[in-house]
Amino acid sequence: MAPPLDGWAVEWRRTPEGGVPYHVHAAACIFAPKPGPKRAKLIDDHNARELLVNGVEPCNQCSPDVSLGIDL
Predict the structure, then answer these.
(1) Is 66 helix (H, G, I), strand (E, B) or coil?
(2) Average pLDDT over residues 34-54
(3) How many helices (H) and strands (E) does the chain have?
(4) SS3 helix, strand, coil % of the chain, rounded to 5?
(5) For residue 7, what pLDDT band results from cuts at 50, 70 and 90?
(6) In contact, 1 and 67? CB cutoff 8 Å
(7) d(Cα 36, Cα 33) in Å, to the nearest integer?
(8) Distance, CA of 11 to chain centre
C-alpha cells in the first residue's frame, strides 16, 4: 500500500504535563482528529516511523504501520 498523499498525523492525548503521542494515523483517515495545536499535528514519514517504533499505537482503521513497512 502506498503512503497517503497528505502524509501522516499524530494524535495527542492531553495530560497534566502537557501531552503524549497516542495514535499515528494516515492524514486522510476518517478517525484522525483535525490537525491543530491541541489534538493532532501533521508529520512526515520519518517521524511517523520513529513514533511507531517507539511504541505509539497505530490506528486500527488506516494501518499506518503496514503502509510505512513496519512489522509491529
Answers:
(1) helix
(2) 89
(3) 2, 4
(4) 20, 30, 55
(5) confident
(6) yes
(7) 8
(8) 6
What are the backbone angles phi and psi of residue 17, rounded to the nearest 5°? Answer: -85, -5
pLDDT for the residue numbered 35: 78
Q: Which class for 40: exposed (0-12), middle (13-18), buried (19 or more C-beta within 10 A)?
A: buried
**Those residues with Cβ within 8 angstroms of residue 58's Cβ, 6 or more apart along the chain or in another chain:** 23, 24, 52, 64, 65, 72
Rounded Cα gap, residues 43 and 64, in angstroms: 12
Residue 2 has pLDDT above 80, yes or no: no
Structural contact between residues 47 and 18, judged by C-beta atoms closer than 8 angstroms: no
Bridge-based pairing state of the strands 20-26 and 8-13:
antiparallel
DSSP-derived secondary structure letter, 32 = S
